[in-house]
Amino acid sequence: MSDEKRKHPKAESKKKQQLEDVTIDHTGKKMTTNQGIRVTNDDDSLKAGTRGPTIMEDFHFREKMTHFDHERIPERVVHARGTAAHGYFQVYEPLTELTKASFLQDPTVKTPVFVRFSTVVGSRGSADTVRDVRGFATKFYTEEGNYDLVANNIPIFFIQDAIKFPDVVHAIKPEPHNEIPQASAAHDTFWDFVVNNTETAHMIMWLLSDRGIPRSFRMMEGFGVHTFRFVNDRGKATFVKFHWKPVLGTHALVWDEAQKLAGKDPDYHRRDLWNAIEMGDYPEYELGIQILEEENEFALDFDILDPTKFWPEEQIPVKYVGKLTLTENVDNFFAETEQSAFHVGNIVPGIDFTNDPLLQGRLFSYLDTQLIRLGGPNFHEIPINRPIKPPVNNQRDGFHRTTINRGVTSYSVNSLQGNYPRPSSEKEGGYAHYAEKVEGKKIRERSPSFHDHYSQATVFWNSMSPIEKKHIIKAFHFEVGNVESEEIRQQVVDMFNHVDHTLAKEIAAGVGAKPPSAPAGPKITASSPAVSLLTTNYTVKSRKVAILLEDGFNFHDYSQMVNELKGAGIHPEVISHHLGTLTSKEGKKVQVDKTFATSESVMFDAVFVPGGAKSVNKLIAKDKANYFLKEAFDHAKTIGASNEGVDLLADSGIRGIAIAGSEHHPTPVESMGVITIQNAMNLSNFTQTFIK
Ligand code: HDD
């Protein structure tokens, strides 16, 4: 995107304007040192003779080298690998009855947001498509200050009390002696933790489901996990759970794709988000809330303070209250994405916490971690973290202070400056904590209402379709199959026998453990269909289709398909053996987007092979296209072929293809996701079936 174009949207919101004010552009400018001295030569250090030693006096060399030596900051202790974008949030209707939060009142107001998506376990340079929980952190720059909704793509968590967070993270991170494996839970220490901490059972079910390998950050849900409170201007509080629902629906990769992508394109999710925004396919998510009146705090069959439990949507429906739209990529990854600092404790009037012991501990951890990661107490002054209203208080000094506070007082109460800055009353917008009555003995003990670790894990299992169940079993075989300790593998089987007997037997069969002889837990038949991905919205908008071409292709087939795809908001890309242009049998030219060397079927959602005998024969002659198609078929992708293109499918040994209309009968035929047509001039029925 040109710099001119970039500048324009930045000025659209107060936050963008604030960032624009500190954004610099070197185009057309002369180089200087950091002290502003013009530089004469940036290629040679100052030496005593052309072949002599470098001289200490070379301030330009020393400054350049020192800056470089200090260019890294610690990566996030968890969620190190991430990517982010700017956008805005708009509420559909005033939520005045529920909350006084100003950004949830006026549907005409676009609140600027910055959203960072992440994996949890891997280092900064790890692959995007590993099996993991995904972070979905949103900073709303509201008129009342920053509100951060620091969410994940799974509605529950591994543990119930924050004091165990260092334990679960130590267990899942690479093992301490050899730092293996990277970005993976498939190793002994993690599963040792699981079997010794059975509160993890429910989260493991979600992590090993298709949710653990999303197709795109644009196609995954987000969940605030904890029960929060909304508080209205009369002081009435209501319990809420927060959801982000992607407008494109929730979709996953298959495991083989995820693993291959991790090697073929480790930046797959990052690139997908970046490209979608550059192409104007702005990712959208609806904000959903589940509401529970205070008097119903104990009405559910689990404790709403337990973060290992979700509120079934069938029991408490999700109300859609607004939309988040991501419209702009960052100008600079380090300055914006890497330096962004989220904190569950960044909250605005109208939203409040509950006593969930995981949430309570998070309230400490996020501020604390930024102090070390961003090097001191002034990280709120880093442009991406600044609220749109300047902070006003007596906090002063510290590393890298950029604000110049005028005046002699930095304390209150003072009389030298009329006791400014002064606090505000609640009426004036001051944050007042919800006056919940709390009373109790100091005690280090888990509430008995948190003791059930299995029921909802079973509900989740019961809610899965047969194919989702199969994926979970295979995920257990991979994850637990990588555990060296036989004893731990057996303990996993025994633990998950409490979730489901069949599941435990299936796990045992793949990991060399003894199957349990009888079910361990009570029989639970309840389910929550909403947690299955098969109940999600489906749209093909913004998906990617590979078109396999060589010289001599049928331009008619090609152009009909491309036009229809583009009309449906789908992005076709031409793949061939070399870059440059291809010529159709009619003499028309088409640009190649990628080659078989730079792309793989795992990077696409579907494949189309147009007719044209010469083109198809060339594709057949070189093996790459066969492999491309076979792999797409194995990953259950839609494959289409028209006219001679069908010969390539037959040559690729794709099982079960129905060869359509071999006797001049141009009707599309679909079998196992493979759509073919032959002897056809007009492909409109075919293209529509393919898109559907
Ligand atoms: Fe956390 C980062 C989400 C539990 C401590 N967390 C972090 C990020 C997300 C979450 C999305 C990345 C933010 C970014 O993009 O910069 N974390 C969650 C959710 C949790 C959760 C949804 C459970 C409901 N986290 C959790 C606990 C603790 C932490 C229980 C500690 C008591 N989380 C952190 C942290 C991180 C973090 C150490 C690392 C980097 C950072 O904060 O800025 O403070």
TrEMBL record:
GO terms for molecular function: catalase activity. Residues 1-27 are annotated as: Disordered. SMART domains: Catalase. It holds the Pfam family Catalase-rel. SUPFAM superfamilies: Class I glutamine amidotransferase-like, Heme-dependent catalase-like. Keywords: Heme, Hydrogen peroxide, Iron, Metal-binding, Oxidoreductase, Peroxidase. InterPro entries: Catalase (IPR018028), Catalase_AS (IPR024708), Catalase_clade2 (IPR024712), Catalase_clade2_helical (IPR043156), Catalase_core (IPR011614), Catalase_haem_BS (IPR002226), Catalase_immune_responsive (IPR010582), Catalase_large_C (IPR041399). Its EC number is 1.11.1.6. The keyword Cytoplasm does not apply. Its cofactor is heme. It catalyses: 2 H2O2 = O2 + 2 H2O. Decomposes hydrogen peroxide into water and oxygen; serves to protect cells from the toxic effects of hydrogen peroxide. This is Catalase. It comes from Evansella vedderi.
